Amino acid sequence: MEVQLKRGSLEVCVLASLLKEDSYGYKIIQSLQEVVEISESTLYPILRRLEASNCLKSYSVEHNGRLRKFYSITEKGKDKIKEYLQDFQELMNIFNYIAKEVRKDD
Amino acid sequence: MEVQLKRGSLEVCVLASLLKEDSYGYKIIQSLQEVVEISESTLYPILRRLEASNCLKSYSVEHNGRLRKFYSITEKGKDKIKEYLQDFQELMNIFNYIAKEVRKDD
DNA sequence: CATAGTACTATGCGTTGTATAGTATTATAC
DNA sequence: GTATAATACTATACAACGCATAGTACTATG
Questions:
Q1: Which residue of B has its CA nearest to A89?
Q2: Helices then strands (H, E): number in chain B?
Q3: How open is the CA angle B54-B10-B96, to the nearest 5 degrees?
């Protein structure tokens, strides 16, 4: 999948994965595996950005003598998901236009 | 519409608009108006990129004593559209996942 | 005891959408 | 008759984001 096309979607994908329950970096990558390939170098900056913009809150839990950083979604994070769902409708318009022009061309 | 979400789609949108007939910068902006808002500063770099990557060819036609630059789509450009249509299916998977998680949360 | 898995941080790059500004001609309106 | 809008394009510079790469460090498994 072309890199550019993922832009804006990965972030929201991560947010959505936290709706059900709080989670931490490594586990988020595992749980999103089926939906989209996301690497550490992509996820961790996303988590930091989302926390900085108050879409996520974090807290640490000790696990095997080390701290595991859990993230939980905020109301602002939920709002961001809703905005995405709306924006995606517009993107669908673009997609539909392209598909339509292709059909005309056949 | 969030800027990041447009990434990768605008380019293909421009390509698709040239399937029907050759066109030039100003007219492309007009014709895409209903589908997506695209400004000069977005379109012209796209046109140059697409030409540099051989997805478009260009030729100039005199109009009112000035040269008007027409673009026509190449086979490579058409291939790029097809790739986009496929990639978009993957993006839809991401979208569907997000929408599903939101429904669960209600 | 080496390898794989777990868990996270830091640095840096390329692509792309867009703002801003500049150039220059023609058509319309006051 | 001159100001404004429309036409048509070029050039520069920026910010955001996905991702590659590398490093740290601990635990479990064979």
A1: B1
A2: 5, 3
A3: 120
Compute the nearest-CA separation of A86 from chain B (Å): 9
CA/C1' separation B64–C28 (Å): 17
| Span B29-88, pLDDT tens digits | 999 998 999 999 999 999 999 999 999 999 998 877 777 899 999 999 999 999 999 999
Q: Which pair of structure tokens corresponds to residue A4?
A: 């550019």
Q: Give the nearest nucleotide to A48, CA to C1'.
A: C9
Minimal Cβ distance to B9: which of A91, A101, A102: A91
Is the pTM higher than 0.85? yes
**Chain B residues inside the 8 Å CB shell of A2:** 8, 83-84, 87
- Note whether B102 and A77 are within 8 A (CB): no
* Residue burial B4-33, b: 16+ Cβ < 10 Å; e: rest: ebbbbbbbbbbbbbbbeeebbbeebbeebe
Q: For chain A, 106 residues long, give each residue's pLDDT as a single digit of tens.
A: 999 999 999 999 999 999 999 999 899 999 999 899 999 999 999 999 999 999 999 999 887 777 889 999 999 999 999 999 999 999 999 999 999 999 998 7
